[in-house]
């Protein structure tokens, strides 16, 4: 049987919706450290040695407390208040970074991940070399340390995302983009849509990309991704529109780029999904960024 060549499931998404990491802390942590959701950041924490207990005060849908007894990572894709609890005599050795996903809560990757992921470092294949470089870089201050540490955190995050695409159930990932990309046939259709969102995408063409019948494709897509193919494509286009609007592009140009017949058609689709017109949404987004 002819085997289809592998597809790059991440580069197009990360090219459209950038992620950035900012080195935040390295070394021992004693007492209680508080990370407030009001700061507006996600976090990637890497526990190198020691023990750590984490609580999520007032949060719903996440464990109230987590205990890490081996080298592990904690990923918070979006803002979520959490506290580290350590006995001062024991402490722990860790490094962490603040994360920002372009588009915030509507970033397709951030939106598809659970609020918190806790995994032993040893479970994530291919992570060790990047972690060795990162820990070596954050152990002491050297020229360019912060810039290099930022990039290494981003490398670790991409490696983690790569692993999550192949192990969504182990990380508790709910139906969405990640689970869709984890299914090889659906991944081919999703990648094609990501690369050419403005082209016509009737169900028959999506199914052809996946090598499936229309009925099998539609049923499998809904079961794995959690929405219909048309709804997913609509969400992807509107997320791209939001990103482009923040970059200063006009609605009319976006309508042509994203496959809408007119600026008014894009505005109607935008309002139906976001609850605001593009102009209203952009004004609110700019006001929030300036605050």
Structure description:
By secondary structure, the protein is an alpha+beta fold. The protein has 2 domains: 156 residues, Jelly Rolls; 108 residues, Arc Repressor Mutant, subunit A (Orthogonal Bundle). Helices cover 46% and strands 19% of the residues. Strands 1-8-3-6-9 form a 5-stranded antiparallel beta sheet. The protein has a 4-stranded antiparallel beta sheet with strand order 2-7-4-5, with no helix packed on it. Helix 6 packs across helix 7, helix 7 crosses helix 8 and helix 10 packs across helix 11.
Query: In the CATH hierarchy, what is the superfamily of the largest domain?
Result: Jelly Rolls
* Radius of gyration based on Cα positions: 21 Å
- Please give the CATH class of the largest domain: Mainly Beta
Q: The CATH topology of the largest domain, please?
A: Jelly Rolls
Helical element count?
12
% residues in beta strands: 15-25%
Q: What's the arrangement of strands in the largest beta sheet?
A: 1-8-3-6-9
Order of helices and strands: HEEEEEEEEHEHHHHHHHHHH
Tell me the distance between the termini.
58 Å
- Average pLDDT rating: 90
Which segments are poorly predicted (pLDDT under 50) over 5 or more consecutive residues?
none
Number of strands: 9
Helix/strand-derived category reads alpha+beta
Largest sheet, if any? 5 strands, antiparallel
For the record, the count of structural domains works out to: 2
Corresponding CATH architecture of the largest domain: Sandwich
> So what's the overall shape?
globular
Question: Roughly how much helix do the residues carry, as a percent range?
Answer: 40-55%
């Amino acid at each position: 049987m002819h085997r289809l060549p592998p597809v790059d499931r991440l580069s197009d998404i990360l090219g459209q919706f950038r992620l950035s990491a900012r080195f935040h802390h390295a070394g021992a942590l004693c007492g209680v450290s508080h990370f407030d959701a009001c700061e507006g950041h996600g976090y990637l924490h890497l526990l190198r040695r020691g023990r750590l207990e984490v609580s999520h005060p007032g949060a719903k849908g996440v464990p109230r407390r987590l205990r890490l007894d081996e080298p592990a990572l904690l990923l918070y894709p979006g803002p979520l208040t959490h506290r580290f609890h350590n006995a001062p005599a024991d402490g722990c050795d860790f490094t962490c970074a603040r994360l920002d996903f372009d588009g915030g809560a509507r970033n397709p990757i951030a939106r598809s991940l659970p609020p918190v992921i806790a995994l032993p470092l040893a479970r994530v294949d291919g992570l060790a070399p990047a972690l060795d470089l990162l820990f070596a870089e954050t152990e002491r201050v050297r020229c360019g340390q912060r810039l290099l540490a930022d990039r290494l955190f981003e490398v670790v995050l991409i490696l983690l995302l790569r692993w999550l695409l192949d192990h969504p159930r182990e990380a508790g990932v709910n139906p969405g983009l990640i689970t869709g990309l984890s299914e090889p046939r659906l991944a081919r259709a999703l990648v094609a849509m990501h690369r050419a969102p403005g082209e016509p995408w009737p169900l028959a063409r999506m199914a052809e990309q996946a090598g499936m019948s229309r009925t099998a494709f539609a049923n499998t897509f809904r079961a794995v991704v959690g929405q219909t193919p048309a709804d997913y494509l609509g969400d992807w286009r509107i997320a791209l529109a939001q990103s482009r609007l923040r970059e200063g592009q006009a609605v009319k140009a976006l309508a042509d780029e994203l496959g809408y017949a007119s600026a008014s058609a894009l505005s109607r689709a935008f309002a139906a999904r976001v609850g605001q017109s593009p102009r209203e949404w952009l004004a609110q987004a700019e006001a929030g960024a300036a605050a």
